[in-house]
Structure prediction request, 220 residues.
Amino acid sequence: MKQFAIIGMGRFGTSLAQTLYSLGNDVLAIDINEEKIAAVSDYVTHAVTGDATDEQTLKSLGINNLDVAVITIGGDMQASILVCLLCIELGIKKVIAKAQSDLHARVLRKIGVDKIVFPERDMGMRLARNLVSSNVLEFIELSSDHSLVEINVPEKWEDTSIMDLNIRAKYGVNIMAIKHGGVINVSPKAQDVLEKGDTIVVIGTNEDIRKIDSRAKNHK
Ligand code: ATP
Prediction:
């Protein structure tokens, strides 16, 4: 169980806070708006109305003892930057922030924010990838070149073992897991056979993954 502070109960912050709490984590929700706090109070560990740009407020909440702070304030860029800076100075191990623009992200990066997210942009990119890749079910970008994807087994690969397909050499990707029915094999062996209806989790370069996906489409 981890301890999180989520600062800003907009749509993104609220969804994040409620999900973390439902997954069994300790969640401190902070917002300047009393109504936003009232709406979320039943779904988090602690919900506090307060101005997070006020150092004393953050200190009195013992925020420095938490593992992660996520600052989701969007519209007020100045407040977002100030709260991030205070969280970093108070010694929170990991500070994550939502950015509204590239300039906003650049400032956050400069002051030492560990991770910056653009929820609308990220979700838009993710959805676009899923829409154009008929076979890709889930897509996680590991870097600008590499991704991890969950993909339906291409028809051409059905009833063939990983060894016979020679996947690593021929396609340049690695199969990390095979999902067969409700069972997940997380350490696939060379002799494991891919079957119709299986899904596989594959890691590789975006280019190699694209090739597999277009193969799958051609064989539909
Ligand atoms: P979303 O798209 O997630 O709904 P948004 O990008 O529109 O959010 P805002 O509405 O600007 O972001 O901010 C999110 C929340 O942060 C709001 O509920 C707002 O009341 C809260 N907030 C803004 N400034 C502060 C502050 N100084 N301290 C605490 N909360 C704040």
Remarks:
- The longest strand covers residues 146-152.
- The pocket of adenosine-5'-triphosphate is lined by residues 7-13, 30-33, 36, 51-53, 72-76, 79 (CB under 6 Å).
- Residues 3-117 form a domain with the Rossmann fold fold (CATH 3.40.50.720).
